[in-house]
């Protein structure tokens, strides 16, 4: 009987040891990303799930608003911005893991109009942009939202900023600006090429020359409080498989 009790006790201890050593259930990666990444990142996340991982939790919005949320302690494992300014903002406040920071993507800035109401524009100083279209011009909030920051730089470079004063409408993010133009509430808009290409309700008038604004860069980084699973997802975002998805959606990848 004593031998039997010892065997049972040994078995229970062994089971307990095995249970303690079992890996914890993988948690979904929580991602805060710029609105312009919506379609591409959703597809990348689906690929990640098909590889056997939990579906990532994706939150999209203006890089500025998301950065403020991360700063305030919102539960995010990975942050992706549409410019360097807001990644720098979090980096300077110790809210991201600087060692994981990487510039993964690029984009192009374009001038758009409602479908069927496209106008001609010469992307050079001196062109009478104010007379080229009717109504307002929508873009992200200048000085705050990345697309608005790039837009203001381009308009100032082309000397179009002053002629359009009183007609520029700043929105919460690039997708909101796109929606205003789609509905015809703005006669023109400035968005990213990747946003313009997903809509059949807008026409691309022209692309802004690269020298008119700072390079459009998308930095990605793990947050300071990122869970272990996030590192693997960030590696996947840097993989050839993910790069192919981003290219298909119109983004440029550094090696391009």
From TrEMBL:
MF GO annotations: metal ion binding; molybdate ion binding; tungstate binding
Keyword Transcription regulation set for record: no
One GO term (biological process): molybdate ion transport
Signal sequence, renumbered to the chain: 1-20
Keywords assigned by UniProt, alphabetized: Metal-binding, Molybdenum, Signal
Residues holding molybdate: 36, 63, 174, 192
Gene Ontology CC terms: outer membrane-bounded periplasmic space
InterPro entries per UniProt: ModA, ModA/WtpA
Assembly and oligomerization: The complex is composed of two ATP-binding proteins (ModC), two transmembrane proteins (ModB) and a solute-binding protein (ModA).
Family from the record: Belongs to the bacterial solute-binding protein ModA family.
Annotated protein name in UniProt: Molybdate ABC transporter substrate-binding protein
Name of the encoding gene: modA
